[in-house]
Structures are given as structure tokens and as C-alpha cells.
Design a protein that fits this description.
Belongs to the MYST (SAS/MOZ) family. The protein is an alpha+beta fold and about 600 residues long. It has a domain at about 380-590: Aminopeptidase. Helices cover about 40% and strands about 10% of the residues. Helix 13 (about 475-490) crosses helix 14 and helix 14 (about 505-525) packs across helix 16.
């Protein structure tokens, strides 16, 4: 029987290109031999064979002299073979059938199984194949694509579960500190994973799906609110101060929702809450249902989600990283305080998660043992500097940032844990710090402070102000603000806080300005009033006075003039609150012993 040779070829991307048949003696080989002689050629094998052209070919294609088997001829002789054109080689015209047969014999004696190409086909010489025409190339490309699709279907991995892909900045070695949490989901409903308590749905007694549902609800409400604001854009800021119908309806709705809330918890609810607290302790948030109205609870949930989203943005920006540079709590005196924001403490302290501080000298330490040893040796019982105010157990100390640099730096680092917009940490020399304390038999405990520039070109009387969390909502914030304006009165200047104000700072200042204006209007007996006169008597900036009058709807524009309305209802409400509150938390100007410092 005549010898048969296998030639292989493929496209450049490794897919099967075409099948070819070759015979040694076309006239003598039977039709069954043609069926067995159909093989495949790979172009990748051609490149491999270029490096071994000096060696004897393992296999060669032998053609009849200068003869090409066309598609019609191959179909006549081989019905089962694929009908691909066989391309004539460049050297086939000079090769004879005898030479081809000799090459075949040598290849067969050398190795019956020639080496395989990466596609599994035997290599062949590049000179064995020639591109016959552009039409053949197009057809070969089309067939190559079909075969590549078949191979892709054979290696299809769609039946395997796809691996979930998270944000590239997530650290998969981190885990949520809440016991039993798998770190999936986020309180905001916008992230796949979380690594802190602030974003843990389980800690807030929610599921990941519930958080996503609440997020979609908040988005819808935000869209409706934006649409309603666009409708109200035509209202003038001073001419139309009356609330719109939409605002009135919303106010009535909120009032009705707050009336519906239960006055107290029944016995079953109390037992449920106690059981939840006993089983989870501080690892879960207390149950908040029925404690307040549904409207206020929803507002609280929105604030939680917004705070968690802000922390997530800080984490993605690299300012906060989970578990390494975020101080969770500080031990300050007899209090353990949860922090609100990131503060740039040294890394060796920040990565601990909990700091121990001396409440008198503000030195920070790593452990309770170090704090106990420090407290046994610390001789400080009050802030450094001069005591310029004392009434009862309340004192205020003036601390120069240049003279007591370390104390002021520690004070700024402590304040940054509870302030969002603070940027002053180490450059404290151009500032004066006024520290308010509350005294008992153990010493003067830090209540709050404010700082001001020694030489302010814009007459800012406050650069930064803070009330410690354990003293908030007790009137100390307004005392600090009132004290700052008292210093401005002594200096005979008009003061204003430095912008931007934090959220809590803006609320405190608005409340203080409101009380100052209502007190002034209550004592004013004339018919004409001047904003400049109010500013000179109260030391409040005229811009702040105008903004407060507008917020109280007491400033009207009529016949080309601005009129100040004396709203007796607001004055009566203020007098009732003032009587109920008493004068325990107020600044007495006579207790101030201070002379304005000269420029330094």
C-alpha cells in the first residue's frame, strides 16, 4: 500500500484552520485511502518548524508534479473528506514523487510519532504551504472562527459558580468586629462588604436586604425633595418668608406622627428589650422601636446611614483604614468615650483602637497600667496658664500655644476625635486657648475649650470650639460661646466664629444668636431699631444678626425698606424656657479678671 503522510495547520490563534489530504500516487490510491489521508494544518506549527528547517522533516506533503487537487476533484474522489482547498507548495514543482517518497521513509524511520505542537498537531515546514488566493484566506478565517467557537463551547465554564468581585481596596483579611457577622452587606445598602461597626447591619439589628430596601426608599425621598425644592426656587429670600403649602402639610404630618407614638413600653416589650440586652450586651445596638415616634426613628436611621457613608468615603480615600488607624474609644478620667472622627495620632498609638489619656495634662498612653503609673506621678490638677474666670466650680484658663506647646497639641488631637472640619494639629503657637473646667475635690476636669488667633485680621473671636461629649446638652456650649463674645466686648470689637462651622457648632451658634436677639428685643423700648446698634451692644457680627432675623422670619421688606418685626410669641416662648432653665449655666461678666493681651 502506498505511504500516507499527515500534514497539520492551524490559524495564528491556535484554532484549527483546515484539513488536507495528500496521496503519494493519485491514480493508484483507492478512495478509502483518501478518507484516511485527510489531516489538519496549523500555522502555529509552521513557525515552530522554521527553527528546525536545518533538520530532516518529520513529515512532508507530497503532491503530483505541479498538480493541485481542486475542491471539485477532491469531492469526486473523497466524499467523506472535508472540502478544503489544498494549497500548492513553493518547492512542489521541483520535487518529484520519488523524492517525496524518500523523505517519507526517512521521517518514518526517525520517529513514528513526530513531536506535537501546542495545539496537539505535528509540526511541518513553512515551505509546505502557500497562500493560493485572498478568497481562500477569507474562507480559512471564517472556518477558523467556527472551530474556535466550538473549542470555546467545549471549554465553557459557565456551569461553574462565578466568583463574586468586590472593591479592589477591600482587605479580605479584615473582618467585622461584631460577633457572628460575616462582613457581608452594609448599613448604607450601597456596598457589598463592611469591616466596621458603623457599617454593620447585624449590629444595628438589620439584615443586608433590609438595608438595601431602606437605601432605595431614601433615594426616592431625595428625588421628591429635590423636585419640590425646584418648585420653590422662585421664592424670594426676604419678601416671601411664609412657609409654602407643601411645608405646612409636611409639618402637620410630622406633628400627627409624633402624637401617635406610645407613651411608654408595655411589659412584653420591656422583657424583650431586657432579653436582647442580656443576650448580646454591648455587641449589638439596643432595640429602638417604640422608644420614640416612627418619624424620629427614621430620621435617626438616615443619620446613621449618612455617617456610615461618610466613613466609607474616608476609608476608600485612604484617610481611615479598618482596624489599623481608627481609634474607637478613649479612656478619659472616669469616662470611656466613643470617638466620632479620625485624628492623626502617631501610628503606634492609632492602631491600638483604644487610647488612655490623663484628663489633666492630656498625655496619651497605650495601656491602663501605664495610665495608672502616670496618674500616681502626675502633679497637674488643672490646665497650664492663667485662670481668668471663676464662678462657683466653673473656671476658665487662658493657655498660650507658644508657652505650652505640648499641652495645646494634645488638646487639638483630642478635639479632632470629635470634630470633622478641624485642620489645626501641631502649629499652635499663633493661637490662644481658653479651657473651661469643672472643679471638684480631685481637680479641674476638662469641660470644653475654644481657640482664637492672637492677631486676627478678620476679627474672628473663635477659631475652634469643642464641648466634650460627656458635658454636651447641659448648656456648656453656650457658655463657651458667651464667654468668647464677652472677651470681644472687653476688647471693644465685633466678633464672629471662623468658617466653616461644624454641624453641631452651627446649631449651637444659631441657638445663641437667637437668644441674644430675643433678649435684646425684650428689653428694647424704642420704636426704631438699628442692626448696627444691636451689633455694638452684643458684639455679634451684623451678618450673623441678619441671618438670624431671617431664620426667625422677623425681617421683612416693605416699600423699599427692611423692617424688623417684634414677634411677641417667640419672646414669650424664650422667657418661659429661660425661667424654667434658671441662671445656673450663664457667664457672669463681673467674675472675669482679664486684660486683652498685646500683640506678640
Amino acid at each position: 500500500a502506498p505511504r500516507r503522510v499527515r500534514t497539520a495547520g492551524s490559524s495564528s490563534d491556535g484554532t484549527e484552520d483546515s484539513d488536507f489530504s495528500a496521496d503519494l500516487e493519485h491514480a493508484e490510491v483507492p478512495e478509502s485511502a483518501h478518507r484516511r489521508s485527510s489531516t489538519r494544518l496549523t500555522r502555529a506549527s509552521l513557525r515552530l518548524s522554521q527553527s528546525s528547517q536545518g533538520k530532516s522533516a518529520v513529515a512532508a506533503s507530497v503532491f503530483s508534479s505541479g498538480r493541485r487537487i481542486t475542491r471539485s476533484q477532491q469531492g469526486a474522489t473523497n466524499a467523506a473528506a472535508k472540502k478544503y482547498p489544498l494549497r500548492q507548495s513553493r518547492s512542489s514543482g521541483s520535487d518529484t514523487e520519488a523524492n517525496g517518497e524518500t523523505d517519507l521513509k526517512q521521517g518514518a524511520e526517525r520517529d513514528e510519532t513526530p513531536p506535537r505542537t501546542p495545539t496537539g498537531n505535528a509540526p511541518s515546514s513553512e515551505s509546505d504551504i502557500e497562500v493560493s488566493s485572498p478568497s481562500n484566506d477569507l474562507e480559512d478565517e471564517r472556518l477558523a472562527k467556527e472551530l474556535s467557537l466550538k473549542e470555546a463551547a467545549a471549554h465553557d465554564l459557565s456551569h461553574r459558580p462565578k466568583r463574586r468581585r468586590f472593591h479592589e481596596s477591600y482587605n479580605f483579611n479584615m473582618k467585622c468586629p461584631t460577633p457572628g457577622c460575616n462582613s457581608l452587606g452594609h448599613l448604607t445598602g450601597r456596598h457589598e462588604r463592611h469591616f466596621s461597626i458603623s457599617g454593620c447591619p447585624l449590629y444595628h439589628n438589620l439584615s443586608a436586604d433590609e438595608c438595601k430596601g431602606k437605601a432605595s426608599t431614601r433615594d426616592k425621598q431625595a428625588e421628591e425633595r429635590t423636585l419640590s425644592h425646584r418648585q420653590d426656587e422662585n421664592r424670594h429670600s426676604t419678601r416671601n418668608q411664609a412657609p409654602t403649602e407643601r411645608q405646612l402639610r409636611y409639618r402637620e404630618k410630622v406633628t400627627e406622627l409624633r402624637r401617635k407614638r406610645n407613651s411608654g413600653l408595655n411589659k412584653e416589650q420591656k422583657e424583650k428589650y431586657m432579653e436582647h440586652r442580656q443576650s448580646h450586651g454591648t455587641s449589638r445596638e439596643p432595640l429602638l422601636e417604640n422608644i420614640t415616634s416612627d418619624y424620629d426613628l427614621e430620621l435617626f436611621r438616615k443619620a446613621q446611614a449618612r455617617a456610615s457613608e461618610d466613613l466609607e468615603k474616608l476609608r476608600l480615600a485612604g484617610q481611615v483604614s479598618e482596624g489599623s488607624n481608627m481609634i474607637k474609644t478613649i479612656v478619659f478620667g472616669r469616662y470611656e468615650l466613643d470617638t466620632w472622627y479620625h485624628s492623626p495620632y502617631p501610628e503606634e498609638y492609632a492602631r491600638l483602637g483604644r487610647l488612655y489619656m490623663c484628663e489633666f495634662c492630656l498625655k496619651y498612653m497605650k495601656s491602663q497600667t501605664i495610665l495608672r503609673r502616670h496618674m500616681a506621678k502626675c502633679v497637674w490638677k488643672h490646665p497650664p496658664g492663667d485662670e481668668i474666670y471663676r464662678k462657683g466650680n466653673i473656671s476658665v484658663f487662658e493657655v498660650d500655644g507658644k508657652k505650652n506647646k505640648i499641652y495645646c497639641q494634645n488638646l487639638c488631637l483630642l478635639a479632632k476625635l470629635f470634630l470633622d472640619h478641624k485642620t489645626l494639629y501641631y502649629d499652635v503657637e499663633p493661637f490662644l486657648f481658653y479651657v473651661m473646667t469643672e472643679a471638684d475635690n480631685t481637680g479641674c476636669h476638662l469641660v470644653g475649650y475654644f481657640s482664637k488667633e492672637k492677631n486676627s485680621f478678620l476679627n474672628y473671636n473663635v477659631s475652634c470650639i469643642l464641648t466634650m461629649p460627656q458635658y454636651m446638652r447641659q448648656g456648656y456650649g453656650k457658655m463657651l460661646i458667651d464667654f468668647s463674645y464677652l472677651l470681644s466686648k472687653v476688647e471693644e470689637k465685633v466678633g464672629s466664629p471662623e468658617r466653616p462651622l461644624s454641624d453641631l457648632g452651627l446649631i449651637s451658634y444659631r441657638s445663641y444668636w437667637k437668644e441674644v436677639l430675643l433678649r435684646y428685643l425684650n428689653n428694647f423700648q424704642g420704636k426704631e431699631i438699628s442692626i448696627k446698634e444691636i451689633s455694638q451692644e452684643t458684639a455679634v457680627n451684623p451678618v450673623d444678626i441678619v441671618s438670624t432675623l431671617q431664620s426667625l422670619q422677623m425681617l421683612k421688606y416693605w416699600k423699599g425698606k427692611h423692617l424688623v418685626l417684634k414677634r411677641q410669641d417667640l419672646i414669650d416662648d424664650w422667657k418661659a424656657k429661660e425661667t424654667k432653665r434658671g441662671n445656673s449655666k450663664s457667664i457672669d461678666p463681673t467674675a472675669l479678671k482679664w486684660t486683652p493681651p498685646k500683640g506678640t
